[in-house]
Amino acid sequence: MQNNQTFPYESSKSDVSKRSGFTLIELLVAIAIFAVLSALGWKIFDYLIKVKDRNAMHEENLGQLQSAYQQIQRDTLQMIPITANNGGTMEPAVTLDNQRLSFSKAGVTDPLKQGISPYERVEYRYNQQEKKLYRLKYSNLNRVRSEQPLSSVLLTDVEQFQIDVLNPNELERWPSENTNDMNQLPAGLKIKVMIRDVEYEWIFNLLNTDFLNKSA
Asked: Are 95 and 103 in contact (CB under 8 A)?
C-alpha cells in the first residue's frame, strides 16, 4: 500500500520557495525610493559645488580688492601739491575730469643713483567696455606728449565706477571753479566700484601734511 502522506518539512520548503523574490509593486517602490534618494544626493552635490565656486570667486574678489585698495592708499598718501608739464601744457597737481583722475606723487627711490626723478605722474582710467580700472604711470612730471605710460590693471569685472573729490562736498571735477591754485590738493577722494553686483566704497584723505611741512 502506497503512503501519500506529505511530511511537514516538505510543505515548509514549498512555502519558502513561493515567498522568495519581489513582487512588481515592491520593485517599483524600491526603484522610486532609489530615484528620490539619487535626486536628493545630486542636488546636495550640485549645491556643494556651487558653494565651493562662489567661495573661490569671493576669495578672488577680495584678493584683487585688497591689492587695489593698498595701491590706491599708497598713491593717496604720496600725492604732492606740484604741477606737471605735459608737452608744454601745465597740469594741476590733481586733475579729475570725465572720471579720469591724474595726480603728481612722490615716493620714487633711486638706490643705484641713476638720476631717477623722485616724482611721477599717475592716472586712474576706467574702461567701461573692458570693465577694467587701469593705473597709468609716467616716470617724470615733465614729459613729452608722445611718452607712453606704464600700464597696469587695478581691478577687473568692474560693472560700475565712480570717482569724486571731497572738498568737503563731493565734486565730479577738479580743480573746481573756485580753485585758483593749481598746486592745491582737495581734502579727500571717494571711489565707488561695483564688482559682480556688489558695491564697494572707499574714502581716502589727500592732505599730505608731512610733505607740506617738509616743503614749508
From this structure: yes
* CA dist., res. 199 & res. 25, Å (int): 57
Q: What is the DSSP letter of 70?
A: H
Residues 158-182: tens digit of each pLDDT: 999 999 999 989 999 999 888 788 9
CA angle 184/191/59 to nearest 5° reads 140
User: Could you give the CA distance from residue 49 to residue 63 in angstroms, rounded to a whole number?
Assistant: 21
Share of the chain above pLDDT 90, in %: 52
What does the pLDDT average to over 190-201?
A: 92
SS3 139: coil
Query: Is the model's pLDDT at 190 over the cut of 80?
Result: yes
Q: How far is C-alpha 125 from the geometric centre of its chain's CA atoms?
A: 16
162 touches 141 (CB < 8 A): no
126 near 113, Cβ under 8 Å? no
